[in-house]
Amino acid sequence: MRRPFLNILLPLGTGLLMVACWYAVRHALSEDLKFLLPTPDEIWAALQANSESLSRATLNTSKGAVLGFVLAVVVSFGLALILSLSHLIRASLYPYLMILQMMPIIVIAPILVLWVGAGLNSVVIITFLICFFPLVVNTTQGLISTDRNLVELFRMYRATRWQETFWLRVPAALPYFFTGLRIAAVLAPIGALVGDYTAGSSAGDGGGLGFQAIIYSSQAKYSALFATAAVTCILGFVFAGAVNILSWLALSKWHDSYHRTDN
Amino acid sequence: MRRPFLNILLPLGTGLLMVACWYAVRHALSEDLKFLLPTPDEIWAALQANSESLSRATLNTSKGAVLGFVLAVVVSFGLALILSLSHLIRASLYPYLMILQMMPIIVIAPILVLWVGAGLNSVVIITFLICFFPLVVNTTQGLISTDRNLVELFRMYRATRWQETFWLRVPAALPYFFTGLRIAAVLAPIGALVGDYTAGSSAGDGGGLGFQAIIYSSQAKYSALFATAAVTCILGFVFAGAVNILSWLALSKWHDSYHRTDN
Amino acid sequence: MPVPPIVAFNHVVKRYGDGPVVIDGIDLTAAPGDFISLIGPSGCGKSTLLRLIAGLSPLTGGSLTVDGRTPEDAAAELAFVFQEPTLLPWLTVAHNIEVAQQLRGVSAADRATARRRAVELVRLHGRDSAYPRQLSGGQKMRVSLARALTLEPKILLLDEPFGALDEMTREHLNEELLDIREKQAWTAFFVTHSVAEAVFLSNRIIVMSANPGRIHREVRVDFPYPRTEATRLSRPYHDLVAEVSGLLRSVENT
Amino acid sequence: MPVPPIVAFNHVVKRYGDGPVVIDGIDLTAAPGDFISLIGPSGCGKSTLLRLIAGLSPLTGGSLTVDGRTPEDAAAELAFVFQEPTLLPWLTVAHNIEVAQQLRGVSAADRATARRRAVELVRLHGRDSAYPRQLSGGQKMRVSLARALTLEPKILLLDEPFGALDEMTREHLNEELLDIREKQAWTAFFVTHSVAEAVFLSNRIIVMSANPGRIHREVRVDFPYPRTEATRLSRPYHDLVAEVSGLLRSVENT
Amino acid sequence: AEPFKLTVQLDWVAEPEHGGFYQAQARGYFAAEGLDVTIIPGGPNAFVLAKVATGQADIGQADSTNTLLQQAEGLPLVQFAAVFQDDPSGLLVNAGSAVRSFPDLQGKTIIARPEWAFLPFLKKKYGITFNVMPQNFSVAAFLGNKEAIQQGYYIAEPYHIVAAGGKEPRFLSTWEAGFRAYAVLVTSRKFANAHPTELKAFLRAYIKGWRDYIEGDPAPAHAAMKAANGNNTDAFMLASRQLLIDGKLVTGRDADGGPQNIGRLSPDRFATQISQLEELDILPKGKVTVPQAMTTAFLPVE
Ligand SMILES: Nc1ncnc2c1ncn2[C@@H]1O[C@H](COP(=O)(O)OP(=O)(O)OP(=O)(O)O)[C@@H](O)[C@H]1O
Ligand SMILES: Nc1ncnc2c1ncn2[C@@H]1O[C@H](COP(=O)(O)OP(=O)(O)OP(=O)(O)O)[C@@H](O)[C@H]1O
Ligand SMILES: [Mg+2]
Ligand SMILES: [Mg+2]
Question: Which residues constitute the domain of residue D71?
Fold first, then answer.
């Protein structure tokens, strides 16, 4: 706050440093490995050259990512509420949630494809599967970490289970919830991408970024492949940015993570 | 506590319910889709039939999972310490960590293979990449959520940065840290599996579970494929069990998540 | 008059987990309208006693009825000012005060009226939109008090509500409390470390001894209500304060 | 004797963020060995004043030197008992008490000795291995006090350390505090709401007024140290208590 | 009459290995036979066999090895025509490598789909051992490593490698090693039983499409494939088609090869393949017989 210019300079500086490293690594690579690490300008060129197919793919993947993410948030929230009810319920259900998370996509993909069809549906479900676990675990931990004194206050006033949950445990769990959200935001685009290349479909408008990635990879178009990755990252930044804004709105007024020193 | 038999009965009950559902779904599947969902006894038979190759593969994958997990824990802890230092550092470094997480494995795998060789090294790195982000995000959030009053106490006593970190912020962050650990424990075996089928190697003793999964999948050996998945899940349970024990040791004496009511 | 007691302890014993006995063989009945002060050494079990009444902690032995029911069932009749402010950090002062009423389903308009009155009473005007972390220690306790007072309960449990307040504010609130009591006619259990305050407010003072927590002696305070500044200056008042102080001293020296 | 002041406020102004002015134009110097009590209405800025001395909060205006340095630099000379217990929930009572010394690099053996003495002093024997959540409110405050007392600081900041304690324990600790002062010769800033306590302990009493926090009046207390039970019973003592109470009343009625 | 609706699941995105389908579609051969064919492009995980077995597609393109294995697992599939007389999957060897023939693979690392039966076949036939690394449709490792050996599709990867600046790789083909797998069309037993007429009609048009594609003007197919897969370039499609023709993949490389051979399947070759796979312990003995595996019933009679 006191040095606002640092707020811009430092991130910018690290950014430039990274780019410099990038060029340095590339320079250090032996001539015949250079193709593996295209330079930012090559990637930029590939981005423009493939802008049409990439933007179509981005749109498809974004759809999958957004829907899968939203589904994961909603479902995980509901699950966390149930899990937070008691130790017993956690012991009974956690293992199955873990199994859901641990089922290799390679096992799930064929079932999904045959069941809901390749394409958006499958991509959404895979994104969901990849995002939901960090959300469940964080939200549950948040819900069960509520300050005991506050819980007693609510018990005292015979708050209904509903009130205790939504007026007390949920707000108190927000810092945990947003931590989970921050993780899921980054997993959503990558989940959609994975979903796309394990159960996507090129039917209709031609698949998403995962599809493109595989094609570019098999065709040795590395600049285009990195351009695909770059688009994925940008998608992730958009998600993460949205989560940060929400987190700021929900926590900045009262949570210590936004107030390290007083002034 | 008061109903100890419920502690066993309920999880057992849900388990039986799940198995019943399994059989029901399978029964409901049309005849020509049945092969997609082998019954538990078929899986059990496949497990025994393939016990030799599966146990070899499990050993390989476990190695990758354990090493990748440990690496992720150590590195993410260090990173979280750095990130917790200031808002500025977070703004500067977070995007690059996100990029690391969002780089599709398909882009990374060939580079890794050329760089560190296929096999254990690559598997460890991919497992690391999959596990570390939830750990970093949770640990960092934990480190910056320390009760401001306690921070002031330490500031007051002119604790060194080191002391403030290790005597105050780290213990206070443990509930978050273990939340991250719980997520990473589940991601580690699946990460090793993904690593194995993107950058594993059959050298030496013949690849890990990911390798087996591809083979079984392409040969439509669904019972064996599910047996592979089951082994992965068991691996995950072992990890998660270890984390739960650690969490209990570290938190049960003082944290509210272990004391919902007093007695 | 054989009115049924509103709170009745019967050989109550309490220990936390497998720790030592904290409260041992408490027998105590409160008639409706009683204002009972609990005084005793730190750690003798005063807060624990209130928590038992509120049904927040299970008894280890004996029995306890509140308003003829179990403490759990009677909780709707209670208001409790905890020893710590226990505010929700994400709510402003105004919302923190209203939250108890909200839990009881009071309408927004009535809540706002009650809240404004309570804010006035605890002298926190103008701080309605502050968050707890922006308040001083005494201000937080006053918010907590205001929250309880909006409820118009049958039984009021007060755990050192004025410990963090200056004498003036304290006296002001003492008088306000008696005023409200006239209107709302609750039964109060009041933990305090100020003997003078206990004598001024209550009709019964329970002096407790520690290790384990027992009732050492009960002192009746027969000054008529309403009590005023004049009461504080009266001779019998001073004598009683001295007597209770003496009792307390004797308890602590055993 | 023109000894250099150990704490010197010079036109100090403080506001939190862009909130209202909390402390306005404070001028105050403390000589080494002073025992200064701060009394004033709740929210007048007493805690804030201590936080400024401890370097926990930046000044908005004016200047402040502590032991000839900035507050930040002088912090090694301080011990602070916060208004809230501020214990580390994951440490036992024993470890919580030792942690301050540990931060100062005191050896384990010396720590244990000091801790045992402090535990004795605050009468918490046998609770060494309890966790904070198992303590009563008063017990927590005593742990916090014990932690500060192990440090033998040059300056001791005490923010209502005895507010949650019963009169007996309070008087016991008052006397112990004066005892330790004889040996350790620190300068104390002591926030309390008990005028009697302020008069008994201090050589200077600062009466503050609120909105914004200002020094209303300073009262010197010239009774010789050591003060004893006899002091409490003396006439001049009672007169002074009455005088300061009157001042306080006048402050709050403005 | 209403045209008969029929779906075809490809194994990969539209590329010249699907030239027969697209040419027949573009030229209207299917329509002329009274068929309304929908071509579903595939990709990295097309699950062709599972989709055909479950009726989500009527016809699929696959390779005969995998199909045999899945038939052994009970998938109700039948192979009813050839796409290629030899599966164009083989080993790409970097131009700089010393590996010139199969025995040279001893001790090397091969980047390939781990399930590929050709690998154990090579080990057994030549008495050699080598490592396998999973392949992910990427040629990076190949480009980056002079010694690399990778599974590749004869008519695609070499082109991309050269286009990306690499040297033209050597190609070690399965057929040279005596591993004669087909690229095949499969359908489900159910569909085969229910719609023999339509399958015959389909094959007539399909074979005509292939013939037209390799002998005539490929432009209609190429236009359609470009529309279906934006990554196709004319240069790639022309080069790929030329490799198809030069390698005699569609018409057959045996002595009797020729346009009359398009689509043909030989029961004898299937018998050989089955016994090869059985000897490798990849296929359980006696689990699949030739008549279960394939049929020539829908191919046009010569
Ligand atoms: N972090 C903060 N942000 C904003 N305002 C604050 C903050 N801390 C304290 N204040 C305000 O500053 C004023 C003085 O607070 P302070 O805690 O110093 O009062 P106090 O004299 O110690 O009161 P008490 O006797 O109730 O403890 C109060 O009005 C309070 O609301
Ligand atoms: N949750 C708990 N677990 C174990 N012991 C506890 C717990 N809460 C309180 N105790 C113990 O019970 C005893 C009584 O505690 P209680 O809080 O009732 O005391 P109190 O009379 O209110 O004291 P104070 O005046 O200090 O607030 C104390 O010795 C305390 O250590
Ligand atoms: Mg108490
Ligand atoms: Mg204060």
Answer: 7-86+155-252
CATH of the domain at C78: 3.40.50.300
Q: What is the DSSP string of C46-93?
A: HHHHHHHHTTSS--SEEEEEETTB-HHHHGGGEEEE-SS----TTS-H
What is the rounded average pLDDT of the residues B234-252? 92
Give the pLDDT of residue A168. Answer: 94
The predicted model gives A104-118 an average pLDDT of: 79
Ramachandran bin of B119, using left for φ above 0, alpha for ψ from -120 to 50, beta for the remaining angles: left
Q: How far is B147 from B172, CA to CA, in rounded Å? A: 8
Residues in B closer than 8 angstroms to C133, CB to CB, are 148
Sheet-wide strand order for E183-188? E35-40, E4-9, E59-63, E183-188, E77-84
Residue position matching structure tokens 């480009």: E143
φ, ψ dihedrals at D7, nearest 5°? -135, 130
Give φ, ψ of B206 to 5 degrees. Answer: 95, 35
Higher pLDDT, A105 or A127: A127
pLDDT at E153: 87
Pairing of strands C61-66, C7-15: antiparallel
D216-253 residue pLDDT tens: 999 999 988 888 888 888 999 999 999 998 888 888 76
| Amino acid residing at A147 | D
pLDDT tens across D46-73, in order? 999 999 999 999 999 999 999 989 988 8
Number of CB pairs, chain A paired with chain B, less than 8 A apart: 190
* Best residue among D135, D143, D168, D170 to mutate for probing ligand 2, ranked by most atoms within 8 Å of CB: D135
Set out the domains of chain B in order of their start, with CATH numbers: 46-257 (1.10.3720.10)
> Percent of chain A having pLDDT more than 70?
92
Whole-number average pLDDT of chain D:
90
Query: In DSSP terms, which residues pair with C23 in a beta bridge?
Result: C14, C213
Nearest residue (by CA) to ligand 1, atom 12, is: D22
Express each pLDDT in E172-223 by its tens digit: 999 999 999 999 999 999 999 999 999 999 999 999 999 999 999 999 999 9
Atom of ligand 1 lying closest to residue D44 CA: 21
Q: Which of E67, E253, E44, E238 is nearest to E155 (CA)?
A: E238
For residue B208, what are the contacts with CB-CB under 8 A and spacing of at least 6? B57, B58, B60, B61, B64, B123, B192, B193, B196, B200
- Residue C78 within any structural domain of the chain: yes
- Return the pLDDT at C77: 85
Q: Write down the pTM of the prediction.
A: 0.89
User: What is the rounded distance in angstroms from the CA atom of residue B229 to the CA atom of residue A249?
Assistant: 41
pLDDT < 70: residue spans in chain C: 1-2, 253-254
Which residues in chain D have Cβ-Cβ distances shorter than 8 Å to B171? 88, 90
Higher pLDDT residue, A197 or D202?
D202
Report yes or no on C172 lying in a domain: yes
Chain B, residues 148-167, CB within 8 A of chain A, namely 148, 151
ipTM here: 0.88
How far is Cα A226 from Cα A78, in angstroms, rounded to an integer? 37
Model pLDDT, residue C112: 93
Give the one of E73, E76, E133 whose C-beta lies nearest to B221's C-beta.
E73
Q: Strand, helix or coil at E186? A: strand
Whether residue C19 has its Cβ less than 6 Å from ligand 2:
yes
Q: Can you name the residues that pair with E255 across neighbouring β-strands?
A: none
User: What's the CA gap between A196 and A188, in Å, rounded?
Assistant: 12
Mean pLDDT for all residues in chain E:
89
- For B48, B61, B226, B227, the CA distances from B54, given in Å and listed in that order, are 9, 10, 12, 9
Q: Does residue D149 belong to the interface with chain B, where contact is any CB pair within 8 Å?
A: no
> Residue D142 domain-assigned?
no
Helix (H) or strand (E) holding D81: strand D78-81
Residue D75 lies in a domain: yes
DSSP of D18-34: TS-EEEEEEEEEE-TT-
